[in-house]
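Posting for a labmate who doesn't have an account.
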Amino acid sequence: MTLDVAAGTQLRFSEYLTDLNVPESGASLIETWFPARELSQLIAKDRRVRDPAYSAHRWWARRPPALLRALLLATALPSGITEQEFWTRYASEDHHLAGLTVYDPFMGGGSTLVEAQRLGASVMGSDVDPMSVRIVQSELTPVNGRQLRAYGDQLLQHLRKELSWLYPTAPEAQPLHYFSIAEVSCPSCNETSPVYRNLVLVRDPKKIGSVVRDHALTVFCPVCWTLHHLDSPDRKVIDCCGRRSKIATGTYRAGAFHCPSCDRTSTHRELKTGVARRRIVAVEETQINGRRRLRIPNETDAANELEAARQWEIQRECLPRPEGEIRATRSDERPRSYGITSYEELFTPRQLLVLGHAFQWIRENVREGKFQRALELAISNSLATNNKLCGYATDYGRLSALFSVRGYSLPVLAVELNPLHETAGRGTVAACVERVAKSDTRQVRRHIWDLQASKPVPNTFAFERMEGSSWVGLKNAASASDNGSISKIDVAVFDPPYFDFIAYDELSEFHRAWFGELELAGEPLLPKADDPVQSFGAKLGISLSEMVKRARGNTPFAFTYHSSNPDAWKAVGLALDNAQLAVTQLWPIRSDGHMGHHSNPGNCEWDVVVVCRPKVGTIRQKSSHSVDSWVSEMKPLNVNEADARNFNFAIQMAQTRFARAL
């Protein structure tokens, strides 16, 4: 059995290596072989593995580290490396890319650069987003965790001394979460009514990983606001205030508010729900010698809310705060459609006081720049769990952070965290400092491929702290550089923005507003409405041309891409033509597989790895890739309809551009 290099058919290494009749001198390993099926399985195993290097701060579009490690190795290694040699190097902590410079012009969350650094390479990266630069600098040069924890302890001591009154603690219990619902005025009858989807606050269905509670279900009465602690999670009604209320029924249903007085339906836009008055309906507390409990809010809670609002007005001009209006020209109209027009309006006065005091203390008391930046990153990461748009996973007892889905979702039942809590809570100040402190952890548990067992197996890597050069900065990848100022690169592995884009810059603005960095370094790489293919292809082509100017040696470029939109792949083809690049290989990789009820047959779960190099030094060759062969070779992994289209359009794009290295 033989392998047609152009076909890219995945065979066992031993079967095709003998029959392969391709000169090895010019080709990289990724142009002749790549373990796409095995790597896809390995990536799936790594999904629940938390690598401390990537945990310091959220980024929205990370490619799997396992994929990037494999791409870097296969791009840099020469053709002819055996399958055993490849997986041995993959599993080794040795610096296989020592002496090489790796470049990523769309670095985003920095995964390519971190994996390249772990392989011993010098790294260079850029992005138009200032938040990307902050995050990647932290990942590449983590601070000493022990020293950062010491600073974090001092910060918490200060915050608790100045602001513990915001979260009054009883002798036996400490507040953790404040549950609230909006009260809105009906545009038709002017009656003020609460907005709630149902009456459930918390439920204990005995799921693995959920909070264990004394009661199976806790609900509220929408008339008198009494809490009812029930022994069955399946109760359908409660009797209170002389009426029977259905637990599963609320005033917000089918995506709209239904006025209980006149039955008019209204949208969040009409009601301005995001800036409406909110009523605290319950406080969840942790107990020293007991389980979590819910109680009704008391007079002290109400008084503290009022005092927090008063203190914020007094201290507002003296403290750091989120600056700027939320642009009306955004691709996603949220959160403006909720009535929220400034970033400050995304936070309660209590949250603004804690966050403002935290940033102020860091800037006034931490003199070492690297530790100041690390602590600021920790507080920035805590923003996602300390804002008005946080919800609650009622069956698990966990706060749902903003951007748990990629957008500004407005929860009907909002939850405010006590960020100063000592022992519990997702996204407290202490927890976020600890996440940054753990970034300097050398040991990382991931998976490697066991050739004998033919399956992924756990492995603990002990990555050495690299002292090699790294540079990351703000730059528009589609802007040309003067030839004399270009640093040369040996390997370029990257993940460009997708044609069917999510505007991540609109998400990162939420964090950048606290740093006064609302401006990007240039226009993001996005298609223009009047001519999407031409506009996207032209800009991506300039970025690729920049890489051609930077390149030295003979390694190809490799990038990941996916779309079930034919125009997206036409734009990629145009970019390759503009940069005078030929496609020398394609590989399908399942890099974004969803699990359980999150799976959507309309979403692409597979990337296509596009391998390309300058046309000079290649010879045209017919491609015989096919969707059917890819689907067959990737079994038992599933390929949905969207990915079949994704594969087809990628293959069509490459047909007239396919070549092999001389």
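Reply:
Got it, the structure tokens are right above this. The radius of gyration is 27 Å.
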